[in-house]
Write a structure and sequence with these properties.
645 residues; alpha+beta; Aldehyde Ferredoxin Oxidoreductase,  A, domain 1; Aldehyde Ferredoxin Oxidoreductase Protein, subunit A, domain 2; Aldehyde Ferredoxin Oxidoreductase Protein, subunit A, domain 3; 3 domains; 6-stranded mixed β-sheet; 39% helix; 14% strand; binds iron/sulfur cluster
């Protein structure tokens, strides 16, 4: 019996148009837990056969979409699905002179977590994971309907002609069309950007949920794969239904209590979602701590004019928020709301943007709330990751103002919403020279701009580009302020700049400062997040997954018995396996230790005036971090042991 899981892994070879359904491997479900962990293992098996993947846009890239045991159960926040692949943005395959001791990296193993309904619907359709290889010879889509899984030709109606070129229609149109075809279904699809192989093209599920970071949309595009549509009705059977119900109610009560505790950060989420971090990062309004680390002007500063800030503050976004619009199976935390702008050039309906998106567009000096709302809706439709887009835009604005993008006809400048919207569309549709330049991973972009501007300008060009050397783009907390967070950014398995694999801000604000303590905190956070992603839960799940009653609840669901230590060991195993794969893709300490030149210059304003990344201290944290992880001094991880218990 497959308790918790549906027990079916579906192997799809698009080149042959073959579909093979096989039973799940129960040992792997125990040792790698589920979603992210299992997908890392399935990617490892693939790379063992193919060797390092030098081109993430080649048919050899494997992309896996699936769920985990907790998904579609009453466990609060059990609506997060997993997608894993080798990322397109995190590559620097050619030797470049601007990275000391440069070593080629060919793309990081990327896990992306997405909410909504799709992943639970895929489970109801009878599928745990779709393991997709190869490339179709013409546009196709996958449908999983009540156990029947097929690769079918993508309908002509899913495409439109833009500037004489056939391109996928926006994600909302693709989704609406497919839900008209398969009633009550749920769809995840690429948008025009992914179809055009933009390196930060994402996948969009259920209109506004995304597998955002890393380029999953571009991988779909490279495979001629438009969308996956799922429909089913069958639920999962727990191993011990009565115990599962009782313990589930207990856990539900605990989550509710934590949301109702005004001293906990989770208590802000039902009202403000993630946007409460705007005030916390700008002026420390929430819980009376923080401030001075909201990035401004392409990461130059962490503070700016408070009157300007008010236009894009937590309250400003509260003003346009509507009712809750949450992921399937979310309970109590309810972080997402609809949003509506009533009038003006950006009038429309959609969802309230998230903190990271807003922060990284404030970093472009964009102070127009309604334009931020509009751009966010456009990104969802065009299939563009909002965060990487923000980092790419901030760099492009600085390059443009310094005259480096004249040849590309760029009129980009900080704070100019209209030009940003124009650039977004140019990138998604690859419509002009500027769009084609900015849709590339950064080292290719730097090389092209430098070739046009002359080698003498190289330092100035590099100074603008914080995504240099295969960066994913720094998240919305200034990378200059917190050494622990900078280590989390620098060692994240899915690429430099990612904030989700470990989060240190509250700990550092609470006084955590020593190199070894920071390294240990980051390593523990990374293993814990690997578990949350492997269980199909949300980052905002407030219970400890390696403690009671969760462990007993998980046993009642799956029949798998973990102790706190064996479950944590699974998290470490998953993280180490991902690192091992990244080592094979070319990553080692050289990559982790790279610090973009701009980040070595101190902030000049605000509570953290004078702070910058200090190379010696960062390197001492890296030394401790590798030692704690059991990796070599060069950051090379062994292939981890595979067994639990
Ligand atoms: S807290 Fe937010 S992201 Fe998490 S499951 Fe609920 S609605 Fe989705």
């Amino acid at each position: 019996m497959n308790f918790g899981y549906r027990g079916k892994w579906v192997w799809i070879d698009l080149s042959r148009r073959s579909v093979r359904i096989e039973p799940a491997d129960h040992d792997l479900c125990r040792d790698y837990v589920g979603g992210r962990g299992l997908q890392a293992k399935l990617l490892a098996e693939h790379l063992k056969k193919t060797g390092p993947l030098k081109d993430p846009l080649s048919p050899e890239n494997r992309i896996i979409v699936g769920n985990a045991a907790a998904n579609d159960t009453p466990i609060p926040t059990a609506g997060r699905g997993s997608c894993s692949f080798i990322g397109t943005m995190t590559r620097s395959p050619q030797p470049v002179s601007w990275v000391p001791g440069h070593k080629p990296v060919y793309g990081m193993i990327t896990h992306s977590s997405c909410g909504g309904l799709f992943h639970n619907m895929l489970k109801r359709a009878g599928v745990d994971h779709l393991i997709i290889d190869g490339k179709a010879d013409r546009p196709v889509r996958i449908q999983a309907v009540e156990g029947d899984i097929r690769v079918v030709d993508a309908e002509e109606d899913l495409f439109q002609v833009v500037d004489g070129k056939k391109v996928l229609r926006p994600a909302s149109a693709v989704t609406d069309y497919l839900s008209g075809k398969i009633k009550s279904s749920s769809t995840v699809c690429a948008g025009p950007a992914g179809w055009n192989l933009v390196d930060f093209g994402c996948l969009t599920a259920d209109h506004h949920r995304n597998f955002g970071r890393g380029g999953a949309g571009a991988v779909f595009g490279s495979k001629n794969l438009v969308a996956i549509t799922a429909y089913g009705k069958e639920g999962v059977s727990p191993y011990d239904a009565e115990k599962f119900k009782t313990l589930g109610q207990e856990l539900d009560r605990m989550i509710k209590e934590s949301v109702e505790d005004p001293n906990r950060t989770v208590s802000f989420r039902p009202k403000t979602g993630t946007t409460w971090w705007l005030d916390r990062a700008f002026n420390g309004k929430y819980l009376g701590v923080g401030g001075g680390y909201l990035p401004w002007h392409n990461f130059d500063e962490g503070y700016f004019d408070p009157d300007d800030y008010r236009r894009v503050s937590t309250d400003a976004f509260l003003e346009i928020a509507g009712k809750h619009n949450v992921c399937n199976k979310c309970r109590h935390i309810f972080c997402t709301r609809t949003a509506k702008v009533d009038s003006g050039p950006y009038a429309g309906q959609g969802v309230r943007p998230e903190f990271e998106t807003i922060a990284l567009w404030i970093n472009c000096c964009l102070l127009d709330r309604d334009a931020i709302f509009h751009l966010n809706s456009l990104c969802n439709d065009l299939g563009i990751d909002t965060m990487t887009f923000g980092s790419v835009m901030a760099a492009a604005m600085e390059l443009s103002e310094k005259g480096f993008l004249r040849k590309y006809g760029s009129a980009l400048k900080f704070g100019d919403a209209a030009e940003m919207i124009k650039a977004l569309k140019s990138i998604a549709y690859q419509a002009d020279d500027l769009g084609r330049l900015l849709g590339k991973y950064t080292d290719r972009m730097i090389a092209e701009v430098a070739a046009n501007g002359g080698a003498a300008d190289l330092d100035d060009i590099l100074y603008c580009c914080t995504t240099a050397y295969a960066g994913l783009g720094y998240a919305g907390i200034s990378p200059k302020v917190f050494p622990g967070m900078f280590t989390a950014y620098g060692t994240s398995n899915r690429g430099r700049g990612d904030h989700t694999y470990a989060w240190t801000i509250q700990a550092e604000e609470g006084g955590l400062t020593g190199a070894r303590e920071l390294a240990a905190y980051v390593a523990e956070g990374q293993a814990g997040k690997a578990l949350v992603d492997s269980l199909g839960l949300c980052d905002f799940f407030t219970a400890d997954v390696a403690a009671e009653p969760f462990l007993s609840l998980y046993h009642a669901l799956t029949g798998i018995e973990y102790t706190p230590e064996t479950l944590k060991e699974c998290g470490r195993r998953i993280y180490t396996l991902e690192r091992h794969l990244n080592n094979l893709q070319g990553r080692d300490r050289t990559y982790d230790a790279f610090v973009p030149p701009k980040l070595r210059l101190p902030l000049t304003r605000g509570a953290h005036k004078g702070k910058a990344v200090h190379l010696d201290f960062y390197n001492s944290i890296l030394d401790a971090y590798y030692e704690i992880q059991g990796w070599s001094k060069q950051g090379v991880a062994p292939l981890p042991e595979g067994k639990t218990g």
